[in-house]
């Protein structure tokens, strides 16, 4: 009898853990995102954006820096938010070895010649796993300036 009870308990625990990992979606991830990773938007701003998208309205809010930020795409596993004229954030959920990883792509673009794309990978609790620069033309511009003769 004890073995059956123990087996039932372990099975219930495994099912609860599986249900929690399956329920991870981009909405909960975006809602739980630390303010330090997206200081432009408060938690209420993020919730408003998702509500506006659900209502098929323009998903734009006033951000904390006095500008306008807007969500342009929202699905079950990804989203895209234009925070300012120079910064766009994209989030995507990916499965890696039975774990869900949050991939955040930040695109900084001031002009066509100055652009930088950063990719960060985070755990479901927003702990940084890795980050790297995919493309950067900012330093290339500095190289051009310094390589020219100064006559």
What does this structure look like?
The protein is of the alpha+beta class and 151 residues long. It has one domain (25-147). Helices cover 33% and strands 35% of the residues. It has helices at 2-22, 26-32, 43-54, 138-147, and strands at 60-62, 68-74, 78-82, 87-96, 99-109, 115-122, 128-136. The chain has a seven-stranded antiparallel beta sheet. β5 and β6 form a beta hairpin. α2 runs antiparallel to α3 (43-54). The chain starts with a helix and ends with a helix.
SSE succession? HHHEEEEEEEH
Portion in beta strands: 35-45%
What best-fitting shape do the alpha-carbon axes yield? globular
The biggest sheet, with number of strands, parallel, antiparallel or mixed sense and barrel status, is: 7 strands, antiparallel
Report strand order across the widest sheet: 1-2-3-4-5-6-7
Number of helices: 4
In short:
This protein has one domain (25-147). It has 151 residues and is an alpha+beta fold. 33% of the residues lie in helices and 35% in strands.
Name some characteristics of this structure.
151 residues; 7 strands; 33% helix
Write the layout of secondary structure elements.
Blueprint: H1 2-22, H2 26-32, H3 43-54, E1 60-62, E2 68-74, E3 78-82, E4 87-96, E5 99-109, E6 115-122, E7 128-136, H4 138-147
């Amino acid at each position: 009898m004890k073995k059956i009870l123990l087996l039932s308990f372990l099975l219930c625990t495994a099912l609860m853990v599986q249900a929690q990992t399956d329920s991870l979606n981009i909405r909960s991830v975006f809602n739980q995102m630390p303010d330090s990773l997206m200081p432009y938007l408060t938690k209420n701003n993020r919730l408003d954006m998702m509500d506006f998208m659900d209502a098929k309205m323009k998903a734009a809010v006033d951000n904390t820096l006095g500008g306008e930020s807007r969500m342009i795409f929202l699905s079950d596993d990804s989203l895209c938010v234009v925070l300012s004229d120079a910064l766009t954030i994209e989030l995507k959920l990916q499965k890696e070895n039975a774990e869900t990883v949050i991939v955040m792509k930040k695109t900084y673009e001031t002009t066509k010649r100055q652009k930088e794309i950063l990719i960060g990978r985070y755990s479901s609790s927003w702990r940084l796993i890795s980050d790297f620069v995919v493309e950067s033309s900012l330093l290339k511009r500095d190289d051009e300036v310094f390589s020219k003769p100064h006559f």
